From TrEMBL, chains A, B, C:
It comes from Azumapecten farreri. This is Microsomal glutathione S-transferase 1. The lineage of its organism: Eukaryota, Metazoa, Spiralia, Lophotrochozoa, Mollusca. One of its GO terms (cellular component) is mitochondrial outer membrane. It is a multi-pass membrane protein. Its EC number is 2.5.1.18.
């Protein structure tokens, strides 16, 4: 019942929720690229060729506010979504209560989707801080379970 | 014997050591947040509301030495702990000698915990470089095993 | 047939290709360290001791073009290789068509190796953009499969 395969319904649910947050995370790459092209702000000199092909003036810069905001959101995703996945994988294989596990997956996924909305739309604080905290809570709670079952 | 489940004693040991280093890595997020609040240095303009609520002057900045040091340590963790986990998972499923595997897990975990101590307390070099190297050695050694068993 | 163990030939192939791209990613750490020492550009004041031991003048800096280029390449690897691994793991356990799966692993690995060549040798664009896109396509295609099989 606690194996990492699609025969295990909990693993299948984990695959769904973690699939969603990983796709969300990767979509920040696309958003960064689109904004670099739109605003012609590139990190590398050779990238200016893309702008020139579009007849735009090129400003190689690492300080455009929009692009840097997207990149901070992306890095925050990496810092949170990847630990969630890794801990979640160990947690699923530890044979937890399925209803509790599903609740953690849903809390994490909901919080991280709303975290991105807060970051991108500059929703007043402490909205983003709370969403960050909710996601961290879910991962940490599972991590405590994994460590206490293995030590 | 080489399956990824808590029935496999080596997987259980892997879950313990990797759980510890992932929690260590995530705790850098909390440390960053605490220092941002303590010193009122935020990356985003809207975050200043947190400082204002506490009646502090806000300086949105990306160059506070304490915060940037914690962030460099966090990024270094991501660059090392995540590859350790991913390679370690493949390594455990490749059916290695359990005693050797346990030794690599312990070298990695010990080195990364000391790496953080060296980074945060500014212990003179080459302490941090050696701890970084020890962790990298453990992961690379497992990676060589995985690749040589699969190609 | 869809279990995460070396008895599953597809998992073994996944282990090989993901092992290669993870080793590639970790090697950026070594490349960064070598270039920091060669050019005596360190991020932390205490690291200058390494340069002094080699009788070089120390410039703690975060803006050396060579080092920052390697770091951007490293971060881009983390942003792409880790999601590939996580999604790939879910994908393998979903029991996909082995030939299709192997093709995605090869597209991803080939694109990411060439992406590094393009980044390090400053090959004119859109070479690097295409290699980035090819890798992202492979991961996203697998992610769509995982999510559609689980929701």
């Amino acid at each position: 019942m606690a194996d990492l395969s699609f025969d295990n319904p909990l693993f299948k649910q984990f695959a769904f929720y973690s699939g969603v947050v990983i796709v969300k995370t990767m979509s920040m790459s696309v958003l960064t690229a689109l904004n670099r092209i739109r605003k012609s702000v590139y990190a590398n000199p050779e990238d200016c060729a893309i702008g020139k092909a579009m007849d735009k003036e090129c400003k190689p810069t690492l300080s455009d506010p929009t692009v840097e905001r997207i990149r901070r959101c992306h890095l925050n995703d990496l810092e949170n979504v990847i630990p969630f996945f890794l801990i979640g994988l160990l947690y699923v294989s530890s044979g937890p209560d399925p209803a509790t596990a599903l609740m953690y997956f849903r809390i994490f996924t909901g919080c991280r989707l709303l975290h991105t909305v807060c970051y991108m739309c500059q929703v007043p604080q402490p909205s983003r801080a709370l969403m960050f905290g909710g996601g961290l809570f879910a991962t940490m709670r599972m991590a405590v379970d994994v460590i206490s079952k293995t030590c």
